[in-house]
Specification:
Chain B: It is a multi-pass membrane protein. Chain A is an all-alpha fold and 318 residues long. Helices cover 71% and strands 0% of the residues of chain A. Chain B starts with 8 loop residues before the first helix and ends with a helix. Classes of the chains: A mainly alpha (318), B mainly alpha (295).
Protein backbone atom coordinates (compact mmCIF):
# COMPACT_ATOMS: atom_id res chain seq x y z
CA UNK A 1 0.00 0.00 0.00
CA UNK A 2 1.38 3.35 -1.01
CA UNK A 3 1.50 6.06 1.57
CA UNK A 4 0.62 8.75 -0.97
CA UNK A 5 -2.60 7.18 -2.08
CA UNK A 6 -3.62 6.39 1.48
CA UNK A 7 -3.49 10.03 2.43
CA UNK A 8 -5.92 11.13 -0.22
CA UNK A 9 -8.21 8.17 0.25
CA UNK A 10 -11.44 8.86 2.05
CA UNK A 11 -12.67 6.47 4.72
CA UNK A 12 -16.16 6.18 3.35
CA UNK A 13 -15.22 5.99 -0.30
CA UNK A 14 -14.76 2.23 -0.25
CA UNK A 15 -11.16 2.27 -1.41
CA UNK A 16 -10.15 -0.87 -3.20
CA UNK A 17 -7.36 -1.91 -0.82
CA UNK A 18 -7.79 -2.13 2.91
CA UNK A 19 -5.24 0.27 4.40
CA UNK A 20 -2.75 -1.28 6.80
CA UNK A 21 -2.70 -0.32 10.47
CA UNK A 22 0.46 1.76 10.09
CA UNK A 23 -1.02 3.69 7.19
CA UNK A 24 -4.12 4.46 9.21
CA UNK A 25 -2.05 5.77 12.09
CA UNK A 26 -0.15 8.01 9.68
CA UNK A 27 -3.31 9.22 8.00
CA UNK A 28 -4.87 10.25 11.32
CA UNK A 29 -1.62 11.54 12.81
CA UNK A 30 -3.05 15.02 13.46
CA UNK A 31 -6.02 13.61 15.33
CA UNK A 32 -3.59 11.77 17.61
CA UNK A 33 -1.49 14.88 18.09
CA UNK A 34 -4.64 16.80 19.10
CA UNK A 35 -5.30 14.33 21.88
CA UNK A 36 -1.83 14.56 23.46
CA UNK A 37 -2.44 17.42 25.94
CA UNK A 38 -5.78 15.99 27.06
CA UNK A 39 -4.46 12.46 27.50
CA UNK A 40 -1.45 13.75 29.40
CA UNK A 41 -3.81 15.65 31.67
CA UNK A 42 -5.84 12.52 32.41
CA UNK A 43 -2.73 10.43 32.98
CA UNK A 44 -1.06 12.91 35.33
CA UNK A 45 -4.00 14.28 37.29
CA UNK A 46 -6.34 11.27 37.30
CA UNK A 47 -4.32 8.08 36.83
CA UNK A 48 -1.21 9.02 38.80
CA UNK A 49 -3.42 9.84 41.85
CA UNK A 50 -5.10 6.45 41.46
CA UNK A 51 -1.71 4.82 41.89
CA UNK A 52 -0.98 7.41 44.54
CA UNK A 53 -3.52 5.51 46.57
CA UNK A 54 -0.63 3.27 47.61
CA UNK A 55 0.02 6.04 50.13
CA UNK A 56 -2.84 4.49 52.09
CA UNK A 57 -0.73 1.37 52.59
CA UNK A 58 2.36 3.29 53.69
CA UNK A 59 3.50 5.37 56.57
CA UNK A 60 3.88 8.24 54.14
CA UNK A 61 6.56 10.80 54.71
CA UNK A 62 6.68 13.89 52.51
CA UNK A 63 10.50 13.93 52.53
CA UNK A 64 10.86 10.28 51.52
CA UNK A 65 8.03 10.29 48.98
CA UNK A 66 6.03 7.34 47.69
CA UNK A 67 9.13 5.30 46.80
CA UNK A 68 10.93 5.79 50.11
CA UNK A 69 8.15 5.57 52.68
CA UNK A 70 7.82 2.30 54.63
CA UNK A 71 4.96 -0.11 53.86
CA UNK A 72 2.54 -0.81 56.67
CA UNK A 73 -0.05 -3.05 55.00
CA UNK A 74 -3.58 -2.55 56.29
CA UNK A 75 -2.52 -0.67 59.43
CA UNK A 76 -3.95 2.66 58.25
CA UNK A 77 -7.30 1.05 57.52
CA UNK A 78 -7.26 -0.57 60.94
CA UNK A 79 -6.57 2.82 62.48
CA UNK A 80 -9.56 4.25 60.60
CA UNK A 81 -12.07 1.54 61.41
CA UNK A 82 -11.03 1.31 65.05
CA UNK A 83 -11.06 5.07 65.52
CA UNK A 84 -13.86 6.33 67.79
CA UNK A 85 -14.62 9.12 65.23
CA UNK A 86 -15.35 6.76 62.39
CA UNK A 87 -18.91 5.58 63.25
CA UNK A 88 -19.96 9.19 63.78
CA UNK A 89 -18.38 10.32 60.52
CA UNK A 90 -20.10 7.52 58.62
CA UNK A 91 -23.42 8.29 60.23
CA UNK A 92 -23.14 12.01 59.42
CA UNK A 93 -22.10 11.32 55.85
CA UNK A 94 -24.76 8.76 54.99
CA UNK A 95 -27.53 10.63 56.80
CA UNK A 96 -26.70 13.87 55.03
CA UNK A 97 -26.55 12.08 51.67
CA UNK A 98 -29.95 10.51 52.23
CA UNK A 99 -31.37 13.92 53.19
CA UNK A 100 -29.98 15.32 49.97
CA UNK A 101 -31.28 12.39 47.95
CA UNK A 102 -34.83 12.95 49.17
CA UNK A 103 -34.93 16.72 49.62
CA UNK A 104 -32.70 17.33 46.62
CA UNK A 105 -34.48 15.24 44.03
CA UNK A 106 -38.14 15.64 44.94
CA UNK A 107 -38.25 19.47 44.74
CA UNK A 108 -36.55 19.30 41.33
CA UNK A 109 -39.19 16.94 40.02
CA UNK A 110 -42.01 18.86 41.70
CA UNK A 111 -40.89 22.16 40.19
CA UNK A 112 -40.70 20.57 36.73
CA UNK A 113 -44.18 19.07 37.10
CA UNK A 114 -45.61 22.42 38.19
CA UNK A 115 -43.91 24.35 35.40
CA UNK A 116 -45.26 21.73 33.02
CA UNK A 117 -48.79 22.70 34.04
CA UNK A 118 -48.30 26.34 33.11
CA UNK A 119 -49.75 27.43 29.81
CA UNK A 120 -48.68 31.08 29.96
CA UNK A 121 -45.27 31.08 28.32
CA UNK A 122 -43.84 34.31 29.74
CA UNK A 123 -44.69 33.26 33.28
CA UNK A 124 -43.06 29.88 32.82
CA UNK A 125 -39.94 31.46 31.32
CA UNK A 126 -39.66 34.08 34.04
CA UNK A 127 -39.91 31.54 36.84
CA UNK A 128 -37.36 29.31 35.13
CA UNK A 129 -34.88 32.11 34.56
CA UNK A 130 -35.20 33.23 38.17
CA UNK A 131 -34.94 29.82 39.74
CA UNK A 132 -31.89 28.48 37.98
CA UNK A 133 -29.83 31.58 38.62
CA UNK A 134 -28.56 30.52 42.06
CA UNK A 135 -27.01 27.36 40.57
CA UNK A 136 -24.24 29.56 39.22
CA UNK A 137 -23.44 31.19 42.55
CA UNK A 138 -20.70 29.70 44.71
CA UNK A 139 -21.31 28.11 48.10
CA UNK A 140 -19.26 30.93 49.60
CA UNK A 141 -21.77 33.43 48.27
CA UNK A 142 -24.65 31.32 49.55
CA UNK A 143 -22.94 31.20 52.94
CA UNK A 144 -22.56 34.98 52.80
CA UNK A 145 -26.29 35.29 52.16
CA UNK A 146 -27.04 32.92 55.03
CA UNK A 147 -24.80 35.06 57.18
CA UNK A 148 -26.83 38.17 56.35
CA UNK A 149 -29.94 36.34 57.55
CA UNK A 150 -28.62 34.45 60.55
CA UNK A 151 -25.55 36.29 61.86
CA UNK A 152 -25.70 36.61 65.62
CA UNK A 153 -26.80 40.11 66.59
CA UNK A 154 -27.34 41.56 63.12
CA UNK A 155 -28.96 38.98 60.82
CA UNK A 156 -32.46 39.66 59.50
CA UNK A 157 -33.95 36.52 61.02
CA UNK A 158 -31.86 36.75 64.18
CA UNK A 159 -33.01 40.29 64.99
CA UNK A 160 -36.59 39.38 64.10
CA UNK A 161 -36.52 36.52 66.63
CA UNK A 162 -34.96 38.82 69.19
CA UNK A 163 -37.55 41.57 68.60
CA UNK A 164 -40.39 39.08 68.91
CA UNK A 165 -38.93 37.93 72.22
CA UNK A 166 -38.28 34.39 70.95
CA UNK A 167 -34.66 34.45 72.04
CA UNK A 168 -31.44 33.58 70.21
CA UNK A 169 -31.58 30.98 67.49
CA UNK A 170 -27.86 30.87 66.60
CA UNK A 171 -28.70 29.05 63.39
CA UNK A 172 -25.11 28.98 62.12
CA UNK A 173 -23.68 27.24 65.19
CA UNK A 174 -26.64 25.11 66.25
CA UNK A 175 -26.25 21.34 65.84
CA UNK A 176 -29.98 20.81 65.60
CA UNK A 177 -30.33 23.27 62.73
CA UNK A 178 -27.20 22.35 60.79
CA UNK A 179 -28.69 19.67 58.52
CA UNK A 180 -31.93 21.58 57.85
CA UNK A 181 -29.87 24.64 56.92
CA UNK A 182 -27.80 22.61 54.45
CA UNK A 183 -30.92 21.10 52.91
CA UNK A 184 -32.72 24.44 52.72
CA UNK A 185 -29.84 26.25 51.03
CA UNK A 186 -29.37 23.31 48.67
CA UNK A 187 -33.03 23.57 47.64
CA UNK A 188 -32.65 27.31 47.09
CA UNK A 189 -29.51 26.86 45.02
CA UNK A 190 -30.14 23.81 42.88
CA UNK A 191 -33.86 23.20 42.40
CA UNK A 192 -34.34 25.39 39.33
CA UNK A 193 -31.35 23.91 37.57
CA UNK A 194 -32.27 20.38 38.55
CA UNK A 195 -35.71 20.81 36.99
CA UNK A 196 -34.27 21.38 33.50
CA UNK A 197 -33.56 17.71 32.87
CA UNK A 198 -37.08 16.64 33.90
CA UNK A 199 -38.65 19.38 31.77
CA UNK A 200 -36.78 18.00 28.78
CA UNK A 201 -38.07 14.50 29.49
CA UNK A 202 -41.60 15.91 29.86
CA UNK A 203 -41.34 17.71 26.53
CA UNK A 204 -40.46 14.41 24.90
CA UNK A 205 -43.67 12.68 25.88
CA UNK A 206 -45.74 11.99 22.82
CA UNK A 207 -48.89 14.11 22.81
CA UNK A 208 -50.93 11.25 21.40
CA UNK A 209 -50.55 9.45 24.71
CA UNK A 210 -52.51 12.21 26.39
CA UNK A 211 -55.15 12.11 23.68
CA UNK A 212 -55.51 8.36 24.04
CA UNK A 213 -55.76 8.69 27.82
CA UNK A 214 -58.39 11.41 27.49
CA UNK A 215 -60.49 9.25 25.19
CA UNK A 216 -60.30 6.49 27.78
CA UNK A 217 -61.77 8.93 30.26
CA UNK A 218 -58.63 9.73 32.25
CA UNK A 219 -58.89 12.95 34.23
CA UNK A 220 -56.02 15.27 35.09
CA UNK A 221 -54.66 13.13 37.92
CA UNK A 222 -54.90 9.88 35.99
CA UNK A 223 -53.06 11.51 33.10
CA UNK A 224 -50.39 12.65 35.53
CA UNK A 225 -50.09 9.17 37.02
CA UNK A 226 -50.26 7.06 33.85
CA UNK A 227 -48.61 9.30 31.26
CA UNK A 228 -46.52 12.07 32.81
CA UNK A 229 -44.77 10.25 35.64
CA UNK A 230 -43.81 7.18 33.55
CA UNK A 231 -42.29 9.70 31.13
CA UNK A 232 -39.77 10.91 33.70
CA UNK A 233 -39.16 7.57 35.39
CA UNK A 234 -36.00 6.69 33.45
CA UNK A 235 -34.38 10.06 34.08
CA UNK A 236 -35.30 9.87 37.74
CA UNK A 237 -33.80 6.38 38.12
CA UNK A 238 -30.63 7.47 36.33
CA UNK A 239 -30.17 10.36 38.75
CA UNK A 240 -30.84 8.08 41.71
CA UNK A 241 -28.09 5.73 40.49
CA UNK A 242 -25.62 8.59 40.16
CA UNK A 243 -26.53 9.90 43.59
CA UNK A 244 -26.17 6.47 45.18
CA UNK A 245 -22.67 6.28 43.75
CA UNK A 246 -21.90 9.51 45.55
CA UNK A 247 -23.48 8.53 48.85
CA UNK A 248 -20.19 8.95 50.70
CA UNK A 249 -19.64 12.40 49.17
CA UNK A 250 -22.49 14.27 50.86
CA UNK A 251 -21.60 17.58 49.21
CA UNK A 252 -18.09 18.39 50.44
CA UNK A 253 -17.97 21.97 49.11
CA UNK A 254 -21.14 23.05 50.83
CA UNK A 255 -20.47 21.21 54.09
CA UNK A 256 -16.88 22.44 54.40
CA UNK A 257 -17.97 26.04 54.06
CA UNK A 258 -20.90 25.79 56.47
CA UNK A 259 -18.99 23.73 59.01
CA UNK A 260 -17.62 25.12 62.27
CA UNK A 261 -16.29 23.53 65.45
CA UNK A 262 -19.59 23.82 67.27
CA UNK A 263 -21.44 21.60 64.76
CA UNK A 264 -18.77 18.90 64.25
CA UNK A 265 -20.99 16.36 66.01
CA UNK A 266 -23.55 16.46 63.16
CA UNK A 267 -21.64 18.13 60.33
CA UNK A 268 -18.25 16.47 60.13
CA UNK A 269 -18.31 14.11 57.15
CA UNK A 270 -15.65 11.83 55.66
CA UNK A 271 -14.42 14.45 53.20
CA UNK A 272 -14.13 17.28 55.72
CA UNK A 273 -12.28 14.92 58.04
CA UNK A 274 -9.91 13.88 55.24
CA UNK A 275 -9.34 17.52 54.39
CA UNK A 276 -8.61 18.54 57.97
CA UNK A 277 -6.32 15.65 58.78
CA UNK A 278 -4.63 15.50 55.40
CA UNK A 279 -4.30 18.98 53.97
CA UNK A 280 -4.39 21.04 57.14
CA UNK A 281 -2.47 18.73 59.51
CA UNK A 282 -0.27 17.24 56.78
CA UNK A 283 -0.85 13.70 57.95
CA UNK A 284 -1.47 11.88 54.69
CA UNK A 285 -1.64 8.14 55.13
CA UNK A 286 -4.72 7.62 57.31
CA UNK A 287 -6.86 10.16 55.38
CA UNK A 288 -5.74 8.51 52.13
CA UNK A 289 -7.00 5.19 53.54
CA UNK A 290 -10.40 6.81 54.13
CA UNK A 291 -10.20 8.06 50.55
CA UNK A 292 -9.60 4.53 49.23
CA UNK A 293 -12.54 3.29 51.28
CA UNK A 294 -14.75 6.04 49.80
CA UNK A 295 -13.69 5.44 46.21
CA UNK A 296 -14.16 1.67 46.40
CA UNK A 297 -17.60 1.93 48.03
CA UNK A 298 -18.69 4.57 45.49
CA UNK A 299 -17.51 2.42 42.59
CA UNK A 300 -19.28 -0.70 43.89
CA UNK A 301 -22.49 1.25 44.55
CA UNK A 302 -22.68 2.72 41.04
CA UNK A 303 -22.10 -0.67 39.45
CA UNK A 304 -24.61 -2.31 41.79
CA UNK A 305 -27.29 0.32 41.38
CA UNK A 306 -26.87 0.22 37.62
CA UNK A 307 -27.34 -3.54 37.58
CA UNK A 308 -30.37 -3.25 39.81
CA UNK A 309 -31.94 -0.57 37.61
CA UNK A 310 -31.49 -2.79 34.58
CA UNK A 311 -33.05 -5.75 36.34
CA UNK A 312 -36.14 -3.69 37.07
CA UNK A 313 -36.56 -2.82 33.44
CA UNK A 314 -34.87 0.55 33.37
CA UNK A 315 -32.06 1.35 31.01
CA UNK A 316 -29.27 2.09 33.51
CA UNK A 317 -26.37 4.37 32.72
CA UNK A 318 -24.68 2.09 30.20
CA UNK B 1 -49.58 22.15 29.44
CA UNK B 2 -50.16 18.83 27.80
CA UNK B 3 -53.24 17.46 29.55
CA UNK B 4 -56.57 17.23 27.84
CA UNK B 5 -59.60 17.57 30.05
CA UNK B 6 -62.55 19.83 30.69
CA UNK B 7 -61.69 22.39 33.34
CA UNK B 8 -63.74 21.76 36.41
CA UNK B 9 -63.74 24.09 39.39
CA UNK B 10 -61.25 21.97 41.40
CA UNK B 11 -58.97 21.99 38.35
CA UNK B 12 -59.03 25.76 38.28
CA UNK B 13 -58.22 25.89 41.97
CA UNK B 14 -55.24 23.63 41.32
CA UNK B 15 -54.10 25.94 38.51
CA UNK B 16 -54.24 28.97 40.75
CA UNK B 17 -52.44 27.11 43.52
CA UNK B 18 -49.63 26.15 41.17
CA UNK B 19 -49.23 29.75 40.01
CA UNK B 20 -49.12 30.94 43.62
CA UNK B 21 -46.52 28.32 44.65
CA UNK B 22 -44.33 29.10 41.65
CA UNK B 23 -44.55 32.83 42.29
CA UNK B 24 -43.58 32.34 45.92
CA UNK B 25 -40.64 30.19 44.88
CA UNK B 26 -39.54 32.80 42.34
CA UNK B 27 -39.70 35.57 44.94
CA UNK B 28 -37.91 33.39 47.49
CA UNK B 29 -35.11 33.07 44.97
CA UNK B 30 -34.86 36.81 44.45
CA UNK B 31 -35.37 38.05 47.98
CA UNK B 32 -32.01 36.98 49.50
CA UNK B 33 -30.16 38.66 46.64
CA UNK B 34 -32.15 41.85 47.13
CA UNK B 35 -31.51 41.80 50.87
CA UNK B 36 -27.76 41.32 50.44
CA UNK B 37 -27.69 44.34 48.15
CA UNK B 38 -29.66 46.40 50.70
CA UNK B 39 -27.29 45.51 53.55
CA UNK B 40 -24.31 46.49 51.41
CA UNK B 41 -25.59 50.08 51.03
CA UNK B 42 -26.92 50.66 54.56
CA UNK B 43 -24.93 53.19 56.64
CA UNK B 44 -24.20 52.63 60.33
CA UNK B 45 -26.45 55.46 61.45
CA UNK B 46 -29.43 53.59 59.98
CA UNK B 47 -28.56 50.39 61.79
CA UNK B 48 -28.16 52.16 65.12
CA UNK B 49 -31.40 54.09 64.73
CA UNK B 50 -33.47 51.04 63.81
CA UNK B 51 -31.68 48.42 65.87
CA UNK B 52 -30.96 46.35 62.77
CA UNK B 53 -31.15 46.34 58.99
CA UNK B 54 -34.37 47.42 57.27
CA UNK B 55 -35.78 45.90 54.10
CA UNK B 56 -36.09 49.37 52.59
CA UNK B 57 -33.47 51.71 54.08
CA UNK B 58 -34.25 55.42 54.45
CA UNK B 59 -30.78 56.49 53.39
CA UNK B 60 -28.04 54.69 51.58
CA UNK B 61 -24.32 55.02 50.90
CA UNK B 62 -21.75 53.55 48.49
CA UNK B 63 -19.05 53.83 51.15
CA UNK B 64 -18.79 50.05 51.64
CA UNK B 65 -17.91 49.66 47.95
CA UNK B 66 -15.43 52.53 48.15
CA UNK B 67 -13.85 50.91 51.20
CA UNK B 68 -13.35 47.50 49.58
CA UNK B 69 -12.09 48.91 46.30
CA UNK B 70 -9.65 51.21 48.12
CA UNK B 71 -8.38 48.44 50.36
CA UNK B 72 -5.95 46.80 47.96
CA UNK B 73 -6.94 43.31 49.10
CA UNK B 74 -10.20 42.98 47.16
CA UNK B 75 -8.93 44.53 43.89
CA UNK B 76 -5.92 42.22 44.02
CA UNK B 77 -8.13 39.19 44.57
CA UNK B 78 -10.42 40.36 41.79
CA UNK B 79 -7.45 40.59 39.42
CA UNK B 80 -6.37 37.07 40.31
CA UNK B 81 -9.87 35.73 39.77
CA UNK B 82 -10.31 37.53 36.45
CA UNK B 83 -6.95 36.25 35.23
CA UNK B 84 -7.66 32.68 36.29
CA UNK B 85 -11.16 32.81 34.81
CA UNK B 86 -10.02 34.13 31.42
CA UNK B 87 -6.80 32.16 31.03
CA UNK B 88 -8.27 29.06 32.61
CA UNK B 89 -11.40 29.05 30.46
CA UNK B 90 -9.39 29.60 27.27
CA UNK B 91 -7.08 26.69 28.10
CA UNK B 92 -10.03 24.51 29.17
CA UNK B 93 -11.77 25.08 25.84
CA UNK B 94 -8.65 24.49 23.76
CA UNK B 95 -7.65 21.23 25.45
CA UNK B 96 -11.25 19.98 25.63
CA UNK B 97 -11.86 20.70 21.94
CA UNK B 98 -8.61 19.05 20.88
CA UNK B 99 -9.51 15.94 22.84
CA UNK B 100 -13.23 15.83 22.01
CA UNK B 101 -12.78 16.20 18.25
CA UNK B 102 -10.75 13.02 17.67
CA UNK B 103 -12.93 11.16 20.17
CA UNK B 104 -15.97 12.03 18.06
CA UNK B 105 -14.50 10.10 15.12
CA UNK B 106 -15.81 6.56 15.43
CA UNK B 107 -13.35 5.30 12.79
CA UNK B 108 -10.25 6.42 14.70
CA UNK B 109 -8.21 3.39 15.83
CA UNK B 110 -7.75 3.41 19.60
CA UNK B 111 -10.61 5.83 20.20
CA UNK B 112 -12.65 3.43 22.32
CA UNK B 113 -9.74 2.61 24.61
CA UNK B 114 -9.06 6.29 25.27
CA UNK B 115 -12.75 6.99 25.82
CA UNK B 116 -13.09 4.13 28.30
CA UNK B 117 -10.03 5.30 30.16
CA UNK B 118 -11.58 8.75 30.48
CA UNK B 119 -15.06 7.60 31.50
CA UNK B 120 -13.50 5.35 34.13
CA UNK B 121 -12.21 8.46 35.92
CA UNK B 122 -15.85 9.44 36.51
CA UNK B 123 -16.44 6.21 38.41
CA UNK B 124 -13.23 5.88 40.34
CA UNK B 125 -10.85 8.51 41.60
CA UNK B 126 -7.73 8.67 43.67
CA UNK B 127 -9.39 11.09 46.03
CA UNK B 128 -8.29 14.25 47.70
CA UNK B 129 -4.95 13.29 49.24
CA UNK B 130 -3.28 11.60 46.23
CA UNK B 131 -4.49 14.44 43.99
CA UNK B 132 -3.01 16.97 46.38
CA UNK B 133 0.29 15.10 46.47
CA UNK B 134 0.33 14.94 42.66
CA UNK B 135 -0.22 18.68 42.33
CA UNK B 136 2.58 19.18 44.83
CA UNK B 137 4.88 16.80 42.98
CA UNK B 138 4.26 18.56 39.65
CA UNK B 139 5.55 21.80 41.14
CA UNK B 140 2.34 23.82 40.98
CA UNK B 141 2.19 24.70 44.68
CA UNK B 142 1.82 28.39 45.37
CA UNK B 143 1.38 29.33 41.71
CA UNK B 144 -1.82 30.33 39.93
CA UNK B 145 -1.33 27.33 37.63
CA UNK B 146 -2.50 25.19 40.55
CA UNK B 147 -5.93 26.75 40.02
CA UNK B 148 -5.93 25.99 36.29
CA UNK B 149 -4.03 22.83 35.38
CA UNK B 150 -5.47 20.25 37.82
CA UNK B 151 -8.96 20.90 36.40
CA UNK B 152 -7.97 21.26 32.77
CA UNK B 153 -10.69 19.01 31.34
CA UNK B 154 -14.08 18.31 32.90
CA UNK B 155 -15.16 14.86 31.78
CA UNK B 156 -18.81 15.92 31.71
CA UNK B 157 -18.00 18.88 29.44
CA UNK B 158 -15.78 16.71 27.28
CA UNK B 159 -18.61 14.23 26.67
CA UNK B 160 -21.01 17.09 25.91
CA UNK B 161 -18.62 18.43 23.29
CA UNK B 162 -17.97 14.99 21.81
CA UNK B 163 -21.72 14.43 21.46
CA UNK B 164 -22.04 17.80 19.75
CA UNK B 165 -19.25 17.05 17.27
CA UNK B 166 -20.86 13.70 16.49
CA UNK B 167 -24.07 15.51 15.62
CA UNK B 168 -22.37 17.62 12.92
CA UNK B 169 -23.03 16.27 9.40
CA UNK B 170 -19.98 14.25 8.31
CA UNK B 171 -20.43 15.31 4.66
CA UNK B 172 -19.11 18.80 5.39
CA UNK B 173 -15.88 17.47 6.78
CA UNK B 174 -15.52 14.95 3.99
CA UNK B 175 -15.95 17.71 1.45
CA UNK B 176 -13.27 19.79 3.09
CA UNK B 177 -10.92 16.79 3.05
CA UNK B 178 -11.54 16.29 -0.66
CA UNK B 179 -10.67 19.95 -1.13
CA UNK B 180 -7.30 19.15 0.43
CA UNK B 181 -7.86 20.41 3.96
CA UNK B 182 -5.85 18.63 6.63
CA UNK B 183 -7.41 17.69 9.96
CA UNK B 184 -5.99 20.91 11.41
CA UNK B 185 -7.61 23.01 8.71
CA UNK B 186 -10.90 21.15 8.95
CA UNK B 187 -11.09 21.65 12.69
CA UNK B 188 -10.14 25.34 12.53
CA UNK B 189 -12.03 26.44 9.42
CA UNK B 190 -15.02 24.10 9.23
CA UNK B 191 -15.81 22.60 12.61
CA UNK B 192 -15.05 25.51 14.95
CA UNK B 193 -17.28 28.07 13.19
CA UNK B 194 -20.12 25.56 13.40
CA UNK B 195 -19.50 24.98 17.10
CA UNK B 196 -19.97 28.44 18.56
CA UNK B 197 -23.10 27.50 20.55
CA UNK B 198 -21.33 24.66 22.32
CA UNK B 199 -18.25 26.82 22.92
CA UNK B 200 -20.48 29.45 24.55
CA UNK B 201 -22.14 26.83 26.75
CA UNK B 202 -18.96 25.13 27.88
CA UNK B 203 -17.20 28.47 28.20
CA UNK B 204 -19.93 29.48 30.63
CA UNK B 205 -19.62 26.21 32.57
CA UNK B 206 -15.84 26.45 32.80
CA UNK B 207 -15.85 30.19 33.43
CA UNK B 208 -18.36 30.01 36.27
CA UNK B 209 -16.35 27.19 37.83
CA UNK B 210 -13.19 29.28 37.79
CA UNK B 211 -14.99 32.32 39.13
CA UNK B 212 -16.45 30.29 42.00
CA UNK B 213 -13.39 28.16 42.71
CA UNK B 214 -12.39 28.05 46.34
CA UNK B 215 -10.66 24.80 47.30
CA UNK B 216 -7.76 25.18 44.88
CA UNK B 217 -7.00 28.48 46.61
CA UNK B 218 -6.90 27.13 50.13
CA UNK B 219 -5.18 23.86 49.26
CA UNK B 220 -2.43 25.00 46.95
CA UNK B 221 -1.72 28.66 47.80
CA UNK B 222 0.11 30.02 50.83
CA UNK B 223 0.86 33.49 49.50
CA UNK B 224 -2.03 35.78 50.45
CA UNK B 225 -1.32 37.97 47.43
CA UNK B 226 -2.40 35.11 45.18
CA UNK B 227 -5.72 34.45 46.91
CA UNK B 228 -8.70 34.48 44.54
CA UNK B 229 -11.86 36.43 45.35
CA UNK B 230 -13.79 33.52 46.85
CA UNK B 231 -11.07 32.80 49.40
CA UNK B 232 -10.89 36.45 50.44
CA UNK B 233 -14.68 36.54 50.59
CA UNK B 234 -14.88 33.52 52.86
CA UNK B 235 -12.20 34.92 55.17
CA UNK B 236 -14.08 38.20 55.34
CA UNK B 237 -17.43 36.61 56.12
CA UNK B 238 -16.16 34.55 59.02
CA UNK B 239 -13.88 37.19 60.53
CA UNK B 240 -15.12 39.48 63.27
CA UNK B 241 -12.53 42.08 62.23
CA UNK B 242 -13.14 43.21 58.66
CA UNK B 243 -10.50 45.93 58.84
CA UNK B 244 -7.78 43.40 59.58
CA UNK B 245 -8.90 41.19 56.71
CA UNK B 246 -8.86 44.16 54.34
CA UNK B 247 -5.61 45.39 55.99
CA UNK B 248 -6.89 48.95 56.41
CA UNK B 249 -7.05 50.84 59.74
CA UNK B 250 -10.29 50.41 61.67
CA UNK B 251 -10.75 54.21 61.80
CA UNK B 252 -11.41 54.28 58.05
CA UNK B 253 -14.33 51.89 58.39
CA UNK B 254 -15.93 53.27 61.53
CA UNK B 255 -18.94 54.75 59.72
CA UNK B 256 -19.83 51.38 58.19
CA UNK B 257 -21.33 48.29 59.76
CA UNK B 258 -18.99 45.31 59.17
CA UNK B 259 -21.95 43.48 57.61
CA UNK B 260 -22.20 46.14 54.89
CA UNK B 261 -18.60 45.61 53.88
CA UNK B 262 -19.03 41.84 53.88
CA UNK B 263 -22.17 42.03 51.77
CA UNK B 264 -20.63 44.54 49.38
CA UNK B 265 -17.94 41.93 48.70
CA UNK B 266 -20.65 39.31 48.18
CA UNK B 267 -22.34 41.60 45.65
CA UNK B 268 -19.05 42.12 43.81
CA UNK B 269 -18.77 38.33 43.50
CA UNK B 270 -22.39 37.93 42.33
CA UNK B 271 -22.74 40.70 39.76
CA UNK B 272 -20.58 39.31 36.93
CA UNK B 273 -22.43 35.99 37.06
CA UNK B 274 -25.89 37.54 37.11
CA UNK B 275 -24.81 39.75 34.23
CA UNK B 276 -23.68 36.86 32.03
CA UNK B 277 -25.99 33.93 32.54
CA UNK B 278 -29.34 35.20 31.21
CA UNK B 279 -27.72 35.82 27.82
CA UNK B 280 -26.31 32.33 27.63
CA UNK B 281 -29.48 30.68 28.85
CA UNK B 282 -30.60 29.07 25.64
CA UNK B 283 -27.11 27.67 25.13
CA UNK B 284 -26.57 26.12 28.51
CA UNK B 285 -29.92 24.39 28.59
CA UNK B 286 -29.03 22.73 25.30
CA UNK B 287 -25.58 21.88 26.62
CA UNK B 288 -26.92 20.30 29.72
CA UNK B 289 -29.34 18.18 27.73
CA UNK B 290 -26.60 17.07 25.33
CA UNK B 291 -24.69 15.89 28.40
CA UNK B 292 -27.67 13.90 29.54
CA UNK B 293 -27.66 11.91 26.30
CA UNK B 294 -25.81 8.68 26.87
CA UNK B 295 -22.36 8.68 25.28
Amino acid sequence: MLKGSAQTADVSSGYAHKPSFGTKLWRYRWLYVFMVPGILYYLIYHYVPMFGLVVAFQDYNLMKGVTGSPWVGWDNFKAVFESPDFPQLMKNTVLLSLYRLVFGMLPDLLLALMLNEIRVRWFKKTIQTLTYGPHFLSWIIVYGIMFSFFAPGSGLVTTFFRDMGWGDIDALTNSGLFRPMLVMTDIWKSTGYGAIIYLAALANINHEQYEAAAIDGANRWSQLWYVTLPGVRDVFMLLVILRLGGILDAGFEQVYIFLNVRVYDVGDILDTWIFRRGIEEMNYSVPAAVGVFKSVIGFVLVLGANKLAKRFGGSGIW
Amino acid sequence: MPYIFKKSIPDRIVDVLIIVILSVFGLATLFPLYYVAVVSITPYTEVLRNGGFLLIPNTFTWDAYKAIFNSGVVPKALNVTIFVTLAGTALNLIVTTLLAYPLSKKYLPGRNAVLMGIVFTMLFSGGLIPTFLTVKATGLMNTLWALIIPGMVSTFNLLVMKTYFESLPSEIEEASKVDGCSDVGTLLRIVLPLSMPIMATLGLFYGVNHWNAYFGGIMYLNDRDLYPLQVVLRNMIITPSVSQELSVPQSQLSALPPESIKMATVVVAIVPIIAVYPFLQKYFIKGMLLGAVKG
